[in-house]
Amino acid sequence: MQDKLLMQDMLMLEKGVCDLYMHGAIESSSVNINETFKCALNDSLAMQDEIYKKMEQKGWYTTEQADQSKIDSVKQKFSPSAQF
To answer: What is the C-alpha to C-alpha distance for residues 31 and 37, in angstroms, rounded to an integer?
Structure first.
């Protein structure tokens, strides 16, 4: 059980790091700073994905399939042609 808690903590921390890097990229004042944040964000997203995959393999992080009609509804809602 301790391993599961550690992995959950790692995943939550990594998600937080991704959030910080994303905001850093959005608010960056120069191209070099922006690129640095984007590279760090991509690295952190890859690490988050690896943690997620390990947790999924162990059955510690489960997801359910989304119903296609719900997916289509959301796509239609946010499509550029949607009426407001």
So the answer is: 10
